[in-house]
Fold this sequence. Notes:
Blueprint lengths: L1 E2 L16 E7 L7 E2 H6 L7 H9 L3 E3 L2 E2 L5 E2 L4 E6 L17 E4 L3 E6 L16 H8 L14 E2 L8 E7 L2 H12 L4 E9 L6 E5 L1 E5 L2 E8 L10 E9 L3 E8 L6 H8 L22 H13 L5 E9 L6 E5 L4 H16 L8
Parallel strand pairs: 11-18
Antiparallel strand pairs: 1-2, 2-7, 3-6, 4-5, 4-7, 8-9, 9-11, 10-11, 12-17, 12-18, 13-16, 14-15, 16-17, 18-19
Amino acid sequence: MLEETNNISLIEDEDDQQLYEHFRVVVDKNQEPLRIDKYMFERLKHSSRNRIQKAADAGFVHVNDQPVKSNYKVRPLDVITLMLDAPQHDSTIEAEEIPLNIVYEDTEVMVVNKPAGMVVHPGAGNFHGTLINAVAWHLKDLPTFDANDPAVGLVHRIDKDTSGLLVIAKTPDAKTKLGLQFFNKTTHRSYHALVWGNFNEEEGRIEGNIARDPKDRLRMSVFPPDSDVGKTAITHYRVLERFGYVTLIECILETGRTHQIRAHMKHIGHPLFGDERYGGMEILRGQRSSTYKAFIQNCLNLCHRQALHAKTLGFVHPKTNREMNFTSDLPEDMQQLIQKWRVYIHGTTIDTFDY
């Protein structure tokens, strides 16, 4: 049995992903051992071997429901599947009149401040109401921009429930040049996050490969940097404000992996406040009193998501070569959440740093 996808399209991103089957084959019982990238290349007519290898490195190539690397040797009766982050669906992007918070715009680029709760691109059950649907409407009278053309549009992504800054390329040249900056790690991106726990240090660095959690494909796990599992990921963090039970930090990315900040912070014992997928909805620090539990629940009601905002974005303009730097205010829900913790700390006689 053989089903084939038209192509394998990979993009560096940070958004939530659900995997969908695009290709399935059961290996013949007489098959000799053969690298899986070569085996798939011979059967996927529209994909290069390099693309297949990248798909395997990203955890998209599975054998018997488990991700494998490109050097895996296929065996008789193996069930091979290609799992991608968008369903086989009519993915035509339609222009939709949705408000956009445009921070900057010229003939080459747009910088927008995305609200929490908005998906950046159609897929995984969200085929309307996305950021790119809104961009398509905003640029509907621009003949050179086609939202369905991968040569323009999104250069990077952030999670649905993360707010903050994104850059969009309006021309192919702009997307190529901006894409190279992200690839070469010459862009600047900083996030503000409220995380559980206190830090002994003022700043730190997290390095750990990121790959899908084999037990939960909607979550990412962190693996040793010298392992063959996952992609290299590096996050720098700095303490901005301490509340004892929680801490406001700044995170600066060297890389842009799926759920990077969320997975890295969970890995070092500081899940993002309100991050249900990584355990941030639990009361991880503090008291057992009903009053404190009610306070935490009120905090979670104020900010119905992981407390993470893409605050700054910097890049070199693809046409003028001028350094462009943008900043955005924390959204109202995070401002209210942080203020609630300030009031709590000033009003309590309990030492929130002693736990």
